[in-house]
Structures are given as structure tokens and as C-alpha cells.
Amino acid sequence: MPATDQIAQKVIAVITETLHAKGKTDTDVSLDSPVDRRLGLDSLDWATVVVRLEEETGVDPFQEGLSRELNTIADLVELYAAAAG
Q: Do the beta carbons of residue 32 and residue 72 sit within 8 Å?
């Protein structure tokens, strides 16, 4: 079971790589970054991020639906950490 800080590093790395693949190299990704269009990712990009995170963490926190609102990267990290158990 990965620690929360390891999950945070993976989440930030995957999001940063996805942004770079779109040519957005000037975006600073942190735990306080929003998980909406202001970050520079569209819905297809987020789907790619979720698939990569499932592959890298071995968990799918969306399997049973989303029970709370996600506003920031920190919220996403908490979701993956809870699913990892």
C-alpha cells in the first residue's frame, strides 16, 4: 500500500506529464491546483490521467462512484489514498 506522499508524487507527475504532452510546460502543478479546466486539461485528458493512475497505483477509486466533490489535486490524492486502504 503506497503512502499518501507517494500517491501525491504519482498524481502530480502524471498530471504534469499529461500537461507537457499537450505542450503546456509553464503550468505549475501542486496539491492546491484545481481539478478543472483552469489547470489546462479537458475531460479526455482527465480520463487519461485516471487510467494512468489506476495502472500505477493498482486502485480505481471511481469504481463505486464518486461520493464527494473534487476541487483540488489534494482531494484527488486523498481519494486515491483512501482507495488504496
A: yes
Name the pTM for this structure.
Answer: 0.90
Q: How far apart are CA 21 and CA 24, in angstroms?
A: 7
User: Of 12, 47, 37, 41, nearest to 24 (Cα)?
Assistant: 41
Question: What CATH number corresponds to the domain at position 79?
Answer: 1.10.1200.10
Q: Write out pLDDT tens, residues 38-75.
A: 999 999 999 999 999 999 889 999 887 777 789 999 99
Give which of 8, 3, 20 is closest to 53, Cα–Cα.
8
The C-alpha cell 506522499 sits at 5
Q: State the residue range of the domain holding 12.
A: 4-84
